[in-house]
Structures are given as C-alpha cells and as structure tokens.
Description:
Largest sheet: 8 strands, parallel, barrel
Mean pLDDT: 88
Strand order of the largest sheet: 10-13-16-20-21-22-23-24
Number of strands: 32
Helix content: 25-40%
Oligomer: single chain
Low-confidence stretches: 1-35, 674-747
Strand content: 15-25%
Structural class: alpha+beta
Distance between the termini: 76 Å
Shape: elongated
Amino acid sequence: xxxxxxxxxxxxxxxxxxxxxxxxxxxxxxxxxxxxxxxxxxxxxxxxxxxxxxxxxxxxxxxxxxxxxxxxxxxxxxxxxxxxxxxxxxxxxxxxxxxxxxxxxxxxxxxxxxxxxxxxxxxxxxxxxxxxxxxxxxxxxxxxxxxxxxxxxxxxxxxxxxxxxxxxxxxxxxxxxxxxxxxxxxxxxxxxxxxxxxxxxxxxxxxxxxxxxxxxxxxxxxxxxxxxxxxxxxxxxxxxxxxxxxxxxxxxxxxxxxxxxxxxxxxxxxxxxxxxxxxxxxxxxxxxxxxxxxxxxxxxxxxxxxxxxxxxxxxxxxxxxxxxxxxxxxxxxxxxxxxxxxxxxxxxxxxxxxxxxxxxxxxxxxxxxxxxxxxxxxxxxxxxxxxxxxxxxxxxxxxxxxxxxxxxxxxxxxxxxxxxxxxxxxxxxxxxxxxxxxxxxxxxxxxxxxxxxxxxxxxxxxxxxxxxxxxxxxxxxxxxxxxxxxxxxxxxxxxxxxxxxxxxxxxxxxxxxxxxxxxxxxxxxxxxxxxxxxxxxxxxxxxxxxxxxxxxxxxxxxxxxxxxxxxxxxxxxxxxxxxxxxxxxxxxxxxxxxxxxxxxxxxxxxxxxxxxxxxxxxxxxxxxxxxxxxxxxxxxxxxxxxxxxxxxxxxxxxxxxxxxxxxxxxxxxxxxxxxxxxxxxxxxxxxxxxxxxxxxxxxxxxxxxxxxxxxxxxxxxxxxxxxxxxxxxxxxxxxxxxxxxxxxxxx
Length: 747
C-alpha cells in the first residue's frame, strides 16, 4: 500500500532511524540493491559533466527506469562531492536511511544505485550523510516529476511514449525569421488565469485542460505566443515559481509532465508559440532543495559575499563550477527539446551580471580585474546562449536585463551575451511613469516618450508590461491611469496604441487587456465578470483589434530593429504632448501614427506629410466601438504642398482628446509626365538614328517635314485637350508601368 503524506516519518524520526541497524536487503517484500559493476559507458557522461560540457546530463543523472540482469527497476545517480555517504529512501523502504546505500562510480563525487522492483510514480529522496556526520534528506536535483506541495519528494517518471503531433509547427519555426517576424506575447500565470471553484476554494486546471480553455481565447484575441510564469517545481505559491527546487520537473500543481506536453502540443497545433520563464540566477534555501546539498556549498557560490541574495532569501549559483554549468545548460535545453518549448525568458539577468547587485558597500567584493562585473556569470551566459542557439537558432533566448549592459543581444563571438531578445525595461519604466502622471504635467516629461528612440535599435527589444508591474501595491495597469473612470480607459487605449506602434515585440500580462482593476493575486482567477460591463468589454475589443492589426501589418514588425523601419514626423511638440511618426515595412509601405496624450481636442492640427496624396484613417482609439466618444474621425485627408517638419507636404488633422490614430500613407506617385517625355525623346532619337542610314538627299528632304511635325506636336501638348494619335499613346502607357521590383526600389 502506498504510504500517505500523514504516514511518512518526520525528518527527526528518519534521523533517529539512521542509528538503527539497516534492514537486510533480502527481507521479504523489500527489493535489494545490486552490487555496483563499473560500466565504461558511464565514463563519458561523467567526464563531460565535470568539464561543464554535458548538456544532456539529465539522461545520466536522476532516476531512470531500466533493466539489469533481467530485472526491471530504477537506477539512481547523483552528484554530491562532499558527501560521506548517500542512500536512497522512500515508500519502498519505509524511509529508512542507510538501507539502500549508493556507491561512487568515479571514486570521486558521482553516486549510483540500481534498485529492482521500483516503478513509475514511486516517491523517493536522497539521504545524504555529511562530512560532519549529519543526515540531510534531499529531493533529486534531476527529478522529472515531484509530489505536490506541501509534500516535496521526488517521483520516478517515464517521459517516453507521448505522441507529439506538432511536427509541422516545429519545422515551420526553423524557416521562420524570429527577429523580423510578428511576436505579440500574452504573459500568464498558469494557475490563476481561470480556476475551478469548489465551495469557497479555487482550484487550478491541469495543463491539458488549461490549453483547451486558453487556445480559443488567444486565437480570438490575436496573440502569437503565450509566456508562462515559471512552471519548474517550486514549494511556495507566493513566489509564483521564481524560487525553483526542481529544474527538470514541471510543477505537479497542474498535472503530470505529459499533461504539460499535451499543453504545448495543443498550442502548436493551434498556431501559438510557447515561451516559459526560466530561473538560473538563484534558488531558495528550502531544506530539501539544492541549498547546502551535501552539507556544504555545492550548487551555490561558497563565497558569502557572492553566494546569497539576502533581500530575496535565495542563493546564487556558482557559475564558475563546471558541474553547475552542465546542470543549468542541460535544464535549458531539456525544456526546449523534451517539451518543445519555443523560447526561454531568462529571469533576473542583471542580478547575475553585477557583483554589487542590491548589495551595500562592504557586502560585495571586486572581481580579479577590480571591477563589479561577475566574470563567471558573463562567461556562463555566453556559453549557455551559444549552446542553445547553435543547436536551435529558431528558439528564443530572452533576457530580463534591467540595466544598460551593452550587447545583450549580440553574439558571444562579438563580445555580447548571446541572447536574441531583451526586455526593454527602460521603455517600460519611462512610459508607466509618464502615463501615470496627470496630463497637465506631461508636457514637462515629454522626453519619457521620446527617450527610448535614442537606444531603440541598439538591441532586439521586447516591450514588456509584465506581472511585476501589477502587484505589490503598484496597482493594476488601468488603475495607474489618472483621472475619472472614463479617463482611465481613454489613457489606457492611447498607451496601448502607442505601444503597439513602437518598435519592438510586445508583451502584456493577463487581465490588462480588459482593464482588471484589482492587482493580480495568484490564488484567485482573473475578474472575468468585468466583461459584463461595457467599458471593459470595449477595451478588450480594442486590444483584440490592435493585435489583429499588428499581425496583419508588416510595417509594425518587419523592420523592427533598424532606423529603416522608423521615421519621426513630430518628436518635439511637448507643449501639446503630441508625437507623430512613421513605421515602414521592407517594401517601403508606411503607416503614420499620431498620439495625443492630453484630454484636449486638437482640431486643425497641422503636421508634415511624407508624400503627397490622400491619407486614410484606419484605426482610432477614440472610436465608439472601443469605448471612446466616437465624435472625432478624420475623413480622407488630402495633403497640401506646404513644407513642414522637413517634408515637402503637410496635412491638417483632428486629434481627439487622449487618442492614438493610425493612418494609411499613400504610395509615392511615379513622375508620369517626365517618364513620357523621356520615352518620346528616346523614340525620336531612335528614329533619327534609323534615318541616318538613308541617303543624304532624302534626309535633307525630310528635315523640313520632321520640323513641321514637331511644331504641331508641341501645340497639341500645350493645349492639353487634344488627343495623341493612338499609335503613339499605346507604347507611352506601357512604359509608365514599371516592374514590381523597380517600383519597390524607387519607393
């Protein structure tokens, strides 16, 4: 009978039991460990592991169902360099320390044991005897599955056998241009997006059930990717997954590992990419986890001035330790390969890069060069990104890096960190500060809107409005907006329109798309009942419309990281808090964006226009369908040949209060008359050349006739009403149609 959590002995009881004689291995009903036999095949994975180059170390370490000498069971392997002894304990041996001792396979730090008769879902831990003689009970660092909190034992699990059906998606991603393609991310917490209600309690859906609910919503809203807050096993709900104890185990809160595979498979078949948060910066001090794993610093940096984040209560990985490098890089690749995850958002990169991160003077020490950079962490990140993107150039490695560290998204070979995307935290902080201010003061803070363009193309940025901005007293996004009820929605629509048009990929945390007023709380579902109210439903409609417009408009994502895809029109109208700019696609097609960040109507607003022609309003945040007034729309606006803002043309617009408007820019017109004249001249020269082959007397005789014809033609062109002869009109018309390639180049 499986032992329940209540029946399990406490740590004190297990420690006391260690003093008792171990049960005989051959006792009735108890599987016996087999004597260790050295397998030469074990030498290579151990060697690579110790070199920091075993990037699939989970295949060797951990617990694995196998068969030896005709007996089925489980082989356990563990790295514990400081341990005096290690044994496997669990339900199968009544959690008795020492009854199933492990042996070293390398005479150094790697321990192994095969236990026949163990099966999938059996619970176990390692009982480590420290060099000080103490017993510590540890979950398996390489466990593939774990008990659900508050229990924390590891479970034997077989990953094989899942029937993936996303091969078309996986192949398509290899041909996709990740940098210059659309990416609009819906960030979410898997446990609290929607929840089941059992009386007064809320229960989460499992991964597979969640996919069935989530996919129709993401498709309807027009998101391209979903990003999950960390789903690696963690003990404390309030950490949201950012204090990890199981780097290879999906949290069992939401089901089994194969349930997570089903989630990803369903997403891919629905055309939605999956990104997950991954936390290599630090880990918690929970007794059963990585902390002081074998009684001494093992995974953490042993230097107390480098190895702890006191304000977080967490330990910093020893990034210079080769075995730790193998452990972490294996974890990253494991999620990308075993679970088909499309990208990792690497958490807290800044805390890895700086030795003085959140430390006061005297609490940190300089590196060997006298600087504050963590040289080992830098080298690790370069190694990590090189390993991942060399194997999978189509995957995303996204840095949550909050400082101005240079070359975050440049290759390691060029001195960069090697990520291919970075969160633009500077833009986020500036814009949230600007939008939360009373509009009367925005003219004094206009630089917060424009400053991001000084560095917008220095990295491959993602614009994040994430979970971190709507918790811990920071208010929900709509509650950051100033003014009365209507004003809050108008401000938020203006901001969303500006955000969608700004260079960079997009990320929005769940609930903000319909204006949730409450801060997010991980133990309760989103306030979906708000959609019964018009303003919230209309805001959701607006975000849905923006998302679809973004996906359908290459100008918003095709040239995201170059000045060739962006041009200012009005950057400096701080007095009226208006900005206007252009976004351009690879073919030169342009969208004009105009933002009015004040609750003041700007009627008759004159600004430069890039080309002559008619400008068509195609999206207006003040539309009644989105919850706006619906009073102020621009009919087709014709440009005038009045120079302004560095352009030869200008237009006059109506800008509603607190609004963002998108305009379709007319394609540049070809200089048709000039081309016709050039063609006619070429034809005339061709005719003259042909006539030179005739006799001189004939040419002289025709000279007067030609002159007479030219005089007649000149009069016809000057008068304009007369029609050209059909024989001359046909070739002229053909020549004014340029091939598509020429037209694109000219535009």
